[in-house]
Amino acid sequence: MQKTGKFQKIINPVLAYLLFVVLLFPYVIMILTSLKSKEEVYSIPPTILPQHWVFTNFLDIWEKVPLSDYLLNTLIVAGGATVLTLICAIPAAYAMARMKFAGKKFYMYLIMITQMFSPIVLLVGLFREIQWFGLMDSVWGLVLTNAAFNQAFAVWILSGYFSTIPYELEQAAWLDGCTKAQALRKIILPLALPGIITTVIFVFIAAWNEFAVALTFISTEEMKPLTVGIYAFFGMYDVQWQYVFATSLVAIVPVVILFLLIEKYLISGLTAGGVKD
Amino acid sequence: MNLEKIEAGTKLALTNKKKVPKQRKSQLIVPYLWLLPSLILIVVVIIFPIYELFSISFSKISLSGLKKGFIGWGNFSNVLNDPTFPLVLKNTLVWTVGVVGISTLLSLGIASLLNQEFPGRRLVRSALIIPWAVSLIITSVIWKYILDYNYGVFNLILMKLHIIDENIYWLADPSISFPVMIGVGIFVTIPFTSFVILSGLQAIPADLYESASVDGANRWSKFVHITLPLLRQPLTISTVLNTIYVFNSFPIIWSMTKGDPVNQTDTIITYLYKLAFMSQKMGEAAAVSVISFLLLLVFSILYVTIALRREQ
């Protein structure tokens, strides 16, 4: 940390509080708008604070659209993608951290290359494949896609964490008669818990927030996740902004809480853990 | 213990392969079994669609989506002859370089700000996380509302502050809407970038600055000669990952202008999406995907080279 001059001592906090206001501004507007009546949302000039606080918007949205379906679909997609990602990534990350084999570099390149693409670049190809699988308009198509596109990140972070765990601990477990899989379960996974939690939360949030694939694959209202569901309030002639934002708040609160929980792991997880061989 | 492993490996390599006992041979495939689930997932969901893309891009595609045989470079020449395509490429470049470049500069300032002690620092740090955690589509939709000509509070606030005399159509004219969307892109890119740079700043030992002060260095020369060189690694990480994310970004432009008017604010990503799922031109969309794929591949080869060099 650098020593700061007197001028800096005053100006720095001011700049930081200004930043604070800018960062929260759109989300405060979102919350305030979600509590307005439709008439007020469409008043000219617009208001900032609601003249009448319409808390019933948060009850109405459950009736106007299949919100409980949206929420359940989002939960299935995020939860399912997280589980599938871990099932595939944990053994792979372990092999990368602990085993020597021909083609290791190749797998590493493959993983790195997959990280370069968003699903959208591959969407035309992916779309046809999901059709062949009969997974169009199903949450499972989204689970599969999200799990695959988060695979690189998960393997990268997890193998970084695994390789920080002393090899001797594992060897001791083998001497006690554990198989490799048992040693992984009993020794490595508990010790790599911070890494696993970071991975879980990141993948969960990424899948929770995903939009483009869901927009393309899902057409039935009851199958939509929250990110696509908010568009139900975009009518031909007007947008029911108060409901869009009430629904958005339902989608935002869980992920913001999760993200704040892992704040201290954010960076060590993203940078330091990842680069080790 | 690493030495033991290496020795065992060398011994194995030196032994004639035919003499390797059966049990040893089965041991050799074990690592691949551990990789198998991950490989299957990647091959099925990512590698196969890449193959499929290339195949579609060289095929004639019927409206119902069936492949009707090889047509060579037809889809590519259609795309390259589309008068809007150069504009789309230019937009993609401006979008990516603009968002990544300005975000990085601003994040350098924000990270050094947050690296200093002041009351409420934790609170500001937590606020910085929110645009990162919230779905991009939701943040973009909020900004679309805020920037609305009649009902948005942005015009209202600017009018009250007497910065503008009359409301502005923020999202109609491409010469205004495109920079505005770059602004939203910067807004959502800053959190990740600032956090990565902040972690780099926190790793710089304070006594480096103290000894530089003793030598009479001013703030600027300390920044150029100590901070920047030591931030090389975090800056590489954030720039590379941001370039990929921002190039691939879809929700901001999709929700705010849909690339309108007439492709004026499209990037290659929204352009290909519209070709595929609104104009139903799958063949041409695949050709655009292949072009994006190649652009990303060139960039990723660059990235892998840098990453590997760092490892050594």
From TrEMBL, chain A:
InterPro entries: BP-dep_ABC_trans_perm, MetI-like, MetI-like_sf. It is found in: Cell membrane. The chain crosses the membrane at residues 12-32, 70-94, 106-127, 147-167, 187-208, 241-262. Pfam families: BPD_transp_1. It is a multi-pass membrane protein. Keywords: Cell membrane, Membrane, Sugar transport, Transmembrane, Transmembrane helix, Transport. Residues 71-262 form the ABC transmembrane type-1 domain. Belongs to the binding-protein-dependent transport system permease family. This is Multiple sugar transport system permease protein. It comes from Ammoniphilus resinae.
Automatic annotation (TrEMBL), chain B:
Residues 89-303 form the ABC transmembrane type-1 domain. Gene3D superfamilies: MetI-like. Belongs to the binding-protein-dependent transport system permease family. It is a multi-pass membrane protein. PANTHER family: ABC TRANSPORTER PERMEASE PROTEIN, INNER MEMBRANE ABC TRANSPORTER PERMEASE PROTEIN YCJO. This is Multiple sugar transport system permease protein. Its main location: membrane. The chain crosses the membrane at residues 28-51, 93-114, 126-146, 176-198, 235-254, 285-308. Keywords: Cell membrane, Membrane, Sugar transport, Transmembrane, Transmembrane helix, Transport. It is found in: Cell membrane. Pfam families: BPD_transp_1. PROSITE patterns: ABC_TM1.
